[in-house]
TrEMBL record:
<keyword id="KW-0997">Cell inner membrane</keyword>
<dbReference type="Pfam" id="PF02508">
    <property type="entry name" value="Rnf-Nqr"/>
</dbReference>
<comment type="similarity">
    <text>Belongs to the NqrDE/RnfAE family.</text>
</comment>
<keyword id="KW-1133">Transmembrane helix</keyword>
<feature type="transmembrane region" description="Helical">
    <location>
        <begin position="72"/>
        <end position="92"/>
    </location>
</feature>
<comment type="subunit">
    <text>The complex is composed of six subunits: RnfA, RnfB, RnfC, RnfD, RnfE and RnfG.</text>
</comment>
<keyword id="KW-0249">Electron transport</keyword>
<feature type="transmembrane region" description="Helical">
    <location>
        <begin position="39"/>
        <end position="60"/>
    </location>
</feature>
<feature type="transmembrane region" description="Helical">
    <location>
        <begin position="98"/>
        <end position="116"/>
    </location>
</feature>
<dbReference type="InterPro" id="IPR010968">
    <property type="entry name" value="RnfE"/>
</dbReference>
<feature type="transmembrane region" description="Helical">
    <location>
        <begin position="128"/>
        <end position="149"/>
    </location>
</feature>
<protein>
    <recommendedName>
        <fullName>Ion-translocating oxidoreductase complex subunit E</fullName>
        <ecNumber>7.-.-.-</ecNumber>
    </recommendedName>
</protein>
<feature type="transmembrane region" description="Helical">
    <location>
        <begin position="183"/>
        <end position="203"/>
    </location>
</feature>
<dbReference type="InterPro" id="IPR003667">
    <property type="entry name" value="NqrDE/RnfAE"/>
</dbReference>
<keyword id="KW-0812">Transmembrane</keyword>
<keyword id="KW-0813">Transport</keyword>
<keyword id="KW-1003">Cell membrane</keyword>
Amino acid sequence: MNATYRELTLAGLWNNNPGLVQLLGLCPLMAVTTNVVNGLGLGLATLLALVASNFAISLVRDYIRAEIRIPAFVLIIAGNVTLIEMLIHAYFPELYAILGIFIPLIVTNCIVIGRSEAYASKNPPLHAGYDSLMMGIGFMLVLMVLGGLRELVGNGTLFAQAHLMFGEAARGMTISLGTDFKGILLAALPPGAFIGLGCLVALKNYIDKRMAQTAKASQPITRQPLGEAA
């Protein structure tokens, strides 16, 4: 049975978030998230690759033999990622230079391949497209939040490189904690990414636990009628 759109939304954004629950795509998650803009750029590229590839895979799923489905899926994903890479290179050259090899590596990202095999190959196009949209947004949000935390703690700024995506007018978007803030170098280094992601995962687990406790406490207590045997 196909999941409802509400279930797909909750799964992608929270309950089965690729970055916080499935812990997929950790290589770009750790390497690129030095600031918000880098996370947004790679997150959007991954989102577009997910939606385009999974929608296409769902359309042709009945025409691909089971023995060659993975190579066929990879070819479809590679074609979409190549197109996205060319667009980023053409319109956002400075951002492309920063993201570098991590854009073509989307082809082998476990999130994209995993959703194509687990969902797109078994469900109709609209459901597959919506599932990939929610998974992509969930992953992009994790990239942005982690990038924002590392940028804020490491450099004392937010949106410092917004002009790479939004033009020179976006230089005024930069938020700074002041020139006196020296920053914590650890946040800008790879270990800072592991620590930051660990904190986000711990926070999500804590929220889930509190929500479960609240839901359990709000359930009515059923009392056994008098006179019935225990």
